[in-house]
Amino acid sequence: MATAIPRAAPQAWLVDNLLCAALTATVFSQFVALGATTPLLAASAATVELTLALIVLAASLGRVSPGYWSRLYPVGLVLLAALAWQAWPLWRGAIPGLQRLPGWRAPLNPDAAGLEALKLAGAIACALSAAILARSRARAIRLTSWLVVGGGAYVILSLWLWRWDPLYVWGIAKGDRTWSFTGSLLSANAAGAAFGMISVLALGLTQSMSRTLDLHAPRLRELLLFGAACFGVVAALAAAALTGSRTSLILTAFMTAALAIVDLTRIQDGTRLPRLIGAAVLGVILLAVALGVGLAPIAAKAGVIEEFGTRAAAYQDYLKAAWAAPWSGYGAGSFAMVNEAILPGARMDERWSFTAAHCAPLQAALESGLPFLALMAGAMLAGLAQVARAWIAHSAASAVGLAALAAGLLAIGCSMVDVALNVPAIAAFCALALGLAWGSAAGIDLPPRQRSAVSGWNPSGVADPAI
Known about the structure:
It contains 18 helices and two strands.
């Protein structure tokens, strides 16, 4: 007899669904609003994210075991330290003579420091909210379900916007790549990262539901959700291909193949080997197609090679500037001023329109110093180590948890050569995905008694539905 997954009380189930819906709406409303790239939209979105995090915390008091909180403290404290370091232009006056120390520079744009700190605080709030809402297997599936449904709706809206007016987004010109498919964003590369994340998350939900869906006596809600997940995989992958973003397409294909292979390794019957071979062949085909699409322009026109040369030269200049102020950087939000300052020594016609360094770690060091970069990297590595330890120790890596981790890493990978994480909506989505993986692993890594408390289980023995 199969053991059912117990569930929480009806009121808790309703509250969790409302909070998941609110978090999903908060993220995808930013995508609809041009990615929340203007100061007003970014500040408004971050304020909503912080408010929602406080509501999630308040709703979780008394329902989450102390052991679960202890799993979140280490990474959370490092993230708060990184936030405090990034905001140093706001508190620099509290330490006289600080800016006269070697490696410290006065912020070039102190007025932007507050907004950048607010945006980072909002992203941290998204990660924390997702971690709390995904603290059990059923809750992780529920949050992923909301994200996949919201992502599918966003893909449909994006295609409609392109059909309605391919040259503009909400009446705003797209810039250099006018004919590119960008969804509701102004950057095709950023849009490709967003669609790739949606596709990967939808694949994880499809894999999870394929193990539990009873096709002999299906429930209508489960069938609709499974159909939405399958649609999300295909539609979002197609949308990512339409953007023409080489990096996002290659990473999406790689993550898709990796998730398929990992999922098939769990099959214990006699069909395991043939399925693994089939998954490997599918992965090779996906990667070949992605690499073909991504590398074909390089062979077709020299402009792509020149673009890489421009980026490499820019990275060298930005790295030299970062080493000139290793402790403080030049202040959060100061990239435009730094770029203008070093333009006389470079080709102005190549970089005058750069709004970001096209490399997230390099821009983080340039603006906020090497300690900030080290703290953010430390928080990321600590979280990944916690996730890996929990999944390996308990052999309980969930499909949605793996997919969320893959989606977050996809966004980070895109930001290594482009502007993905410079778009507040993608930064929030990435933080949410990583928080989902982090929270689900932290729940697994608890002793049985505390795991029961963290999940809010009751003796009813009724399986907790996905939504």
